[in-house]
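Annex B. Sample input.
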Amino acid sequence: MSDLKGKVVWITGASAGIGEATAYLAAQKGAKLVISARRTEELERVKSNTGLTEENIMVLPIDVEKIDTFPRLAEQIIEKFGRIDILFNNAGISQRGSTLETDFEVYRKLMEINFFGVAALTKTVLPYMISQGSGHIAATSSVSGKLGSPMRSGYCASKHALHGFFDALRSEVSRNNIFVTMVCPGYIQTDISKNALAPDGNKHGKMDQNQAQGMPVEVCAAKIIRAIENNKAEIYIGGKEIMGIYLKRFLPGLLNRILVNQAPK
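Annex B, continued. Sample output.
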C-alpha cells in the first residue's frame, strides 16, 4: 500500500468535479499538489480551498489539446518539486448525440482530448518516473470505456482507446516499479453532461437525470485515492450502472437488448 504523504501528485481536470474533489483529499493526506486545467481562476480557487502552503502546491494551467506544451510543463514541476510521483490524467470531455447527426470534427476533438492528450502527457512524464525508479499513473476512463452506450459513440471510442493504451503500458513498466490504475466511473454528480459536446460541437448544456442522482463526487474521489494507495489496476465506481460491465463480460446478449431499449426511438 502506498502512502500519499509527501508525494508529488499532478492532477489534470482539477478545476471541478472529480479532479477537484480528488485534489482536496490528496491534500488532506499530505500530498504535494500540481493542479492543472484550462481555467486559471478556478485553479486558484481550488488552490485556496486545499489549505496548502505555497511550497506544497503549484497551479499549472494546461490545454490538453496542445501537446507541444507538455515537456515544458513537466520541467516546471521538476524545477519546483524535483520529481513527479503520481500523474492523474483526469481531464476529459463527454458527448451527447447520435452517430448519424454528429459532425466528424466532434469525434476528432473527443480523441484529441480524451486519448491523444492523455497518451502524450503520460509519455512526457514516464521518463521522469523511470529515472526515479517509481511512479503511479492513473487515468479517468468510464463505464463507457468498457461498453458502448447510445448517443456517446465518440466518447465510448475515446475511452475504449485508453484501456488498450494503459493495459499495454502497465505490462511494460511494471519492472520499473510504476503502477497504472484505470478509473471507470459511472454516474457521478458532476457537470460532465452539461459540458458534453452536442452534435454540432457546442455544449450540450443539460444535466442528465442519472448524473444528477449519481454518486457524490467526494465519495468517488475517496474510492480513487484508495485505489491508488492500494495499486489497483482497475476500479469501477458508481451504482447499478456498474452491472453493465459484468453483463458485457458474462451476458452480452442481455446487455445488448438493454442498450437497444435505451436508445432514442
